[in-house]
Structures are given as structure tokens and as C-alpha cells.
Amino acid sequence: MRVKDKYINPFTDFGFKKLFGSEPNKDLLVDFLNELLQKKTGQIIDLTYLPPEQLGRHIDNRKAIFDIYCENEYGERFIVELQKAKQNYFKDRSIYYSTFPIQQQAEKGQWDFKLNAIYTVGILDFVFDEDKEDQDVFHHEVKLIDQSTKRVFYDKLTYIYLEMPKFTKTENELETHFDKWLYILRNLENLTNRPKKLQEKIFGKLFEQAEIANYTDQEYAEYEESLKVYRDLKNVIDTAFDEGKAEGLAEGLAEGVEKGKAVGLAEGIEKGLAQGIEKGLAEGMEKGKDAAIRLTALQLKQEGIPHETIAKVTGLTIKIIDELS
């Protein structure tokens, strides 16, 4: 074997598309989506992969580049995205991407506006900031809800997000087929053999496709490059966040001390420090996030990654990426 890892990391671009984005492995994606959606209107039998790059209706519109974009036999569309790192306006981007399959259903001439369902699935290698304190909920399914009745207003537009760091079940704790899927996504890279609880035929194929020793030299080189980008991305973000948090905390503490001195009492200093720490942590998180995004973009740019791909990963505009140095 050419590397110490036995199986690929599914959070790399190569790994994700190898397992779920290729025609020979379409049955893996079908099985995963059926378990994820638990559709009451009938299971997905087949999928057709659609072009991942989608252009706007006008030449000057922004375009979208999906990780996986496909359609089932009922005409329902699925955007399946792997999000490796936090980015500014991630939810906005997710909503924006869903507008492309909506517009594509428009028919020329007389049309009654009937739409087929659209599902946007985000497999996240991070946790939403607003959900950090809630470790129990990692599977979010979002629909348009009538606030008065609390009933679903429109059931053809669904956004599903999986905060994978929150999924911590061990092999012995796996109960459902969906649990097993999440366990694989979360742990595949670190496994040395196929776990005893994952003996279903579909998982047999997945482990075969994920085994690095089966790859050609070209595939191996592509995976190694994709893995390098993934690890660099994680490292840059972690470092930038820590540095930004420390910087913001230091500034907040200094401000707190000054506030305390102004009051001139020990109690005032204590309160000022407490306020400073709270503000510093909040500002540090924001500074860390912004710094991480820009450092990530710069590093990917230096690696020769296309600017449009960097924009997709980071949420920055092409103009900002062009100006980074």
C-alpha cells in the first residue's frame, strides 16, 4: 500500500465524488438519499446526474457549481453539497443555489407553474455557530412553515443539513441503516477494516470503492492532491480562528481593564474585566472566522486552485480573491 491510510477521506472533493458522484457508484447515492429522506411518496429507484456547473439566466449573473446535482425518475432535483469549512453567508448561498433548479423547470409558452420537489442536502464538517450549545440535534430538515399554524406551507422545497461533528455514536451504538451511513462518513478515513456491524451489501461496495490500494496511479495522485487541500484548509482555519480569538480576547481584556479603572473600584475592575472577556471572545470568534476565510482563500490561490472554486468554498467574491496577496 502506498499510504498509511486504508480508506479515503470522504470529506475531500475526490473522495466525495468518487463515492457518490460517479455513474458506477450511483447506487451508493440512491441508498444514502433514501435513508436520509425517508420519503413517504416512494423511494428513489434511479438518478440521472446533471451538469454540476449552472449558469444564471443572463450572462452577467453569478453561476453555481454544485458538488453533485441529480434528478430522480419523478423529476425531483437533488443538490448534494459537502461543506468542509464555515463560510460567510453559507445559508444564503444554500438558498441561492436552490433557485437554479426552480428556474430550470420553467416551460416556454403556456405553463401552469407546477414545480417538482427540490432537495438541498448539506453534509457539513462543522457546526453552525448558533447550534454549538445544542449537541443533541445534528440533523436539520428545513421547510417553509406557516408561523400561525406551525404546519408546512410548501412541501416541495426542503433543505437538509447534517452537522457531522455532532454525530458521535460508536459502532456498538449503531441502530439504524442511516446511523451506519453517518458512522461511515464520520469515521471512514480512520478505519482499518470493515466494521462487523456494516455487513450490508451496499456497504461492501462502498468499502471496496474507498480502498486506496485499488486506485490507479492517476487516481491516487488526484486523491493525494485533494487530501492536501482539505488538510491545508482545516489547518489554516484552525490557526486563524485561534489567532483571531486570542487577538479579540486581548483587546477585550484591555478595554475591560480601562473600564474598571475609570470606575476606580475593585468591583468596577471586576465587572469591566467580565464584560471585556465576553466581548473579546465574541469579537475574537468573528475575527478568527474572517481571517480564516481570507487565509484559506490565499492559500488555495497559491496552490493554483481555480478562483471560482475558491469562491465556492469560501463565499468570497472573485474580486476579493483576485486582490489577495
UniProtKB/TrEMBL annotation:
Pfam families named among the record's database cross-references: PDDEXK_2
InterPro entries reported for this sequence: RpnA
PANTHER family named in the record: PD-(D_E)XK NUCLEASE FAMILY TRANSPOSASE
Official protein name in the record: Rpn family recombination-promoting nuclease/putative transposase
